[in-house]
Amino acid sequence: MNKAFTKETDAADDDDEGPSLPPLPAGTKNYITPAGYARLRGELLQLIDEERPKVVEAVHWAALNGDRSENGDYIYGKKRLREIDRRIRFLTKRLDIAEVADPSKHHGSDQIFFGATVTYATSKGEERTITIKGIDEVDHLHGEVSWIAPIARALLKAREGDEVSLMTPGGVETLEVLEVRYPEPST
Protein backbone atom coordinates (compact mmCIF):
# COMPACT_ATOMS: atom_id res chain seq x y z
CA MET A 1 0.00 0.00 0.00
CA ASN A 2 1.26 3.47 -0.84
CA LYS A 3 2.25 5.49 2.23
CA ALA A 4 0.00 8.31 0.99
CA PHE A 5 -3.01 6.25 2.04
CA THR A 6 -1.95 5.55 5.61
CA LYS A 7 -2.68 7.62 8.69
CA GLU A 8 0.92 7.62 9.87
CA THR A 9 3.15 10.60 9.21
CA ASP A 10 6.88 11.07 9.32
CA ALA A 11 6.33 13.77 11.96
CA ALA A 12 5.04 11.11 14.36
CA ASP A 13 8.45 9.46 14.24
CA ASP A 14 10.10 12.67 15.40
CA ASP A 15 7.88 13.06 18.47
CA ASP A 16 10.31 12.12 21.25
CA GLU A 17 8.20 13.29 24.17
CA GLY A 18 5.89 10.72 25.71
CA PRO A 19 2.29 11.86 25.90
CA SER A 20 2.28 11.72 29.70
CA LEU A 21 5.47 13.67 30.31
CA PRO A 22 5.56 17.44 30.01
CA PRO A 23 8.69 19.05 28.64
CA LEU A 24 11.27 20.44 31.03
CA PRO A 25 11.09 24.20 31.56
CA ALA A 26 13.68 26.06 29.48
CA GLY A 27 17.01 26.51 31.21
CA THR A 28 16.37 24.01 34.01
CA LYS A 29 18.17 20.82 34.90
CA ASN A 30 16.55 17.41 34.76
CA TYR A 31 16.85 16.48 38.44
CA ILE A 32 16.31 12.82 39.25
CA THR A 33 16.91 10.56 42.25
CA PRO A 34 19.48 7.75 42.02
CA ALA A 35 16.65 5.17 42.10
CA GLY A 36 14.79 6.99 39.31
CA TYR A 37 17.93 7.16 37.20
CA ALA A 38 18.56 3.45 37.71
CA ARG A 39 14.95 2.62 36.74
CA LEU A 40 15.09 4.68 33.52
CA ARG A 41 18.51 3.29 32.63
CA GLY A 42 17.20 -0.25 33.25
CA GLU A 43 14.25 0.42 30.96
CA LEU A 44 16.58 1.74 28.26
CA LEU A 45 18.88 -1.29 28.47
CA GLN A 46 15.90 -3.67 28.46
CA LEU A 47 14.55 -2.03 25.30
CA ILE A 48 17.93 -2.13 23.55
CA ASP A 49 19.08 -5.58 24.67
CA GLU A 50 15.84 -7.56 24.81
CA GLU A 51 12.67 -6.07 23.36
CA ARG A 52 14.05 -4.42 20.20
CA PRO A 53 15.96 -7.52 19.00
CA LYS A 54 12.81 -9.67 19.47
CA VAL A 55 10.69 -7.26 17.43
CA VAL A 56 13.38 -6.97 14.72
CA GLU A 57 13.42 -10.77 14.48
CA ALA A 58 9.61 -10.90 14.21
CA VAL A 59 9.59 -8.19 11.51
CA HIS A 60 12.34 -10.01 9.60
CA TRP A 61 10.35 -13.26 9.74
CA ALA A 62 7.16 -11.46 8.64
CA ALA A 63 9.02 -9.77 5.75
CA LEU A 64 10.09 -13.17 4.45
CA ASN A 65 6.43 -14.24 4.20
CA GLY A 66 5.82 -12.22 1.07
CA ASP A 67 3.37 -9.40 0.44
CA ARG A 68 4.08 -6.80 3.14
CA SER A 69 1.09 -4.58 2.39
CA GLU A 70 -1.38 -7.08 3.86
CA ASN A 71 0.95 -8.75 6.34
CA GLY A 72 -0.32 -7.84 9.83
CA ASP A 73 2.76 -9.19 11.61
CA TYR A 74 4.97 -7.00 9.45
CA ILE A 75 2.83 -3.86 9.71
CA TYR A 76 2.33 -4.05 13.47
CA GLY A 77 5.93 -5.13 14.03
CA LYS A 78 7.20 -2.06 12.18
CA LYS A 79 4.83 0.13 14.20
CA ARG A 80 6.08 -1.39 17.46
CA LEU A 81 9.66 -0.94 16.29
CA ARG A 82 9.01 2.78 15.74
CA GLU A 83 7.49 3.03 19.23
CA ILE A 84 10.52 1.32 20.77
CA ASP A 85 12.95 3.53 18.83
CA ARG A 86 11.02 6.64 19.89
CA ARG A 87 11.19 5.59 23.55
CA ILE A 88 14.90 4.78 23.24
CA ARG A 89 15.58 8.27 21.82
CA PHE A 90 13.51 9.87 24.58
CA LEU A 91 15.24 7.94 27.38
CA THR A 92 18.69 8.57 25.90
CA LYS A 93 18.07 12.32 25.73
CA ARG A 94 16.61 12.49 29.24
CA LEU A 95 19.40 10.41 30.78
CA ASP A 96 22.05 12.49 29.00
CA ILE A 97 20.80 15.68 30.64
CA ALA A 98 19.88 14.06 33.99
CA GLU A 99 21.30 15.61 37.13
CA VAL A 100 21.29 12.88 39.79
CA ALA A 101 20.51 14.41 43.19
CA ASP A 102 20.67 12.14 46.23
CA PRO A 103 18.01 13.24 48.72
CA SER A 104 19.58 11.18 51.52
CA LYS A 105 22.29 13.83 51.91
CA HIS A 106 19.62 16.00 53.56
CA HIS A 107 18.63 13.26 56.04
CA GLY A 108 17.76 14.84 59.37
CA SER A 109 17.12 18.29 57.88
CA ASP A 110 13.82 20.06 58.43
CA GLN A 111 14.13 22.15 55.27
CA ILE A 112 12.44 21.07 52.04
CA PHE A 113 14.70 20.23 49.11
CA PHE A 114 14.46 17.86 46.14
CA GLY A 115 13.61 14.34 47.31
CA ALA A 116 11.83 15.36 50.52
CA THR A 117 8.70 13.65 51.74
CA VAL A 118 6.53 16.43 53.12
CA THR A 119 3.43 16.25 55.26
CA TYR A 120 1.41 19.45 55.23
CA ALA A 121 -1.97 20.68 56.37
CA THR A 122 -4.33 22.66 54.16
CA SER A 123 -6.33 25.63 55.40
CA LYS A 124 -9.30 23.22 55.64
CA GLY A 125 -7.37 21.07 58.13
CA GLU A 126 -6.73 18.19 55.71
CA GLU A 127 -3.33 16.51 56.03
CA ARG A 128 -1.54 15.35 52.89
CA THR A 129 1.84 13.78 52.25
CA ILE A 130 3.82 14.17 49.03
CA THR A 131 7.32 13.26 47.87
CA ILE A 132 9.12 15.69 45.58
CA LYS A 133 10.86 13.83 42.74
CA GLY A 134 12.09 14.30 39.18
CA ILE A 135 9.73 14.88 36.29
CA ASP A 136 10.60 11.53 34.68
CA GLU A 137 10.06 9.41 37.80
CA VAL A 138 6.90 10.70 39.49
CA ASP A 139 4.01 8.38 40.28
CA HIS A 140 0.98 10.47 41.17
CA LEU A 141 -0.86 7.43 42.50
CA HIS A 142 1.78 7.10 45.24
CA GLY A 143 1.76 10.75 46.29
CA GLU A 144 4.80 11.77 44.26
CA VAL A 145 4.96 15.16 42.54
CA SER A 146 7.49 16.67 40.19
CA TRP A 147 9.80 19.33 41.55
CA ILE A 148 8.38 21.71 38.92
CA ALA A 149 4.78 21.22 40.10
CA PRO A 150 3.21 24.31 41.70
CA ILE A 151 2.82 22.56 45.08
CA ALA A 152 6.49 21.55 45.09
CA ARG A 153 7.64 25.02 44.05
CA ALA A 154 5.59 26.54 46.88
CA LEU A 155 7.07 24.13 49.45
CA LEU A 156 10.73 24.16 48.36
CA LYS A 157 13.08 25.79 50.91
CA ALA A 158 10.33 25.97 53.57
CA ARG A 159 10.93 24.35 56.97
CA GLU A 160 8.80 22.42 59.42
CA GLY A 161 6.31 24.80 61.02
CA ASP A 162 6.42 27.29 58.13
CA GLU A 163 3.31 28.44 56.32
CA VAL A 164 3.47 28.83 52.55
CA SER A 165 1.04 30.24 50.02
CA LEU A 166 -0.07 28.19 47.03
CA MET A 167 -1.88 29.80 44.12
CA THR A 168 -4.77 27.53 43.09
CA PRO A 169 -7.60 28.01 40.60
CA GLY A 170 -9.84 28.74 43.59
CA GLY A 171 -7.49 31.41 44.95
CA VAL A 172 -4.54 31.50 47.34
CA GLU A 173 -4.38 28.61 49.80
CA THR A 174 -2.21 28.58 52.91
CA LEU A 175 -0.34 25.35 53.69
CA GLU A 176 1.40 24.55 56.97
CA VAL A 177 4.45 22.28 56.79
CA LEU A 178 4.05 19.62 59.49
CA GLU A 179 6.90 17.20 58.78
CA VAL A 180 9.87 16.85 56.44
CA ARG A 181 11.58 13.47 55.92
CA TYR A 182 14.41 12.22 53.73
CA PRO A 183 15.55 8.64 53.05
CA GLU A 184 18.39 7.40 55.21
CA PRO A 185 21.81 7.36 53.57
CA SER A 186 22.84 3.95 52.29
CA THR A 187 26.05 2.57 53.72
List the secondary-structure elements in sequence, H or E.
HEHHEEEEHEE
User: What's the overall geometry?
Assistant: elongated
Structural class: alpha/beta
Q: Span from first to last CA?
A: 60 Å
**What is Rg?**
22 Å
Taking the sheet with the most strands, its summary is: 5 strands, mixed
Strands ordered across the widest β-sheet:
5-4-3-7-6
Arithmetic mean of pLDDT: 86
Structure notes:
Helix content is 35%, strand content 20%. The chain is an alpha/beta fold and 187 residues long. The longest helix has 30 residues, at 34-63. The model is unreliable at 5-19 (pLDDT under 50).
Keywords:
187 residues, alpha/beta, 5-stranded mixed sheet, two-stranded parallel sheet, 4 helices, elongated
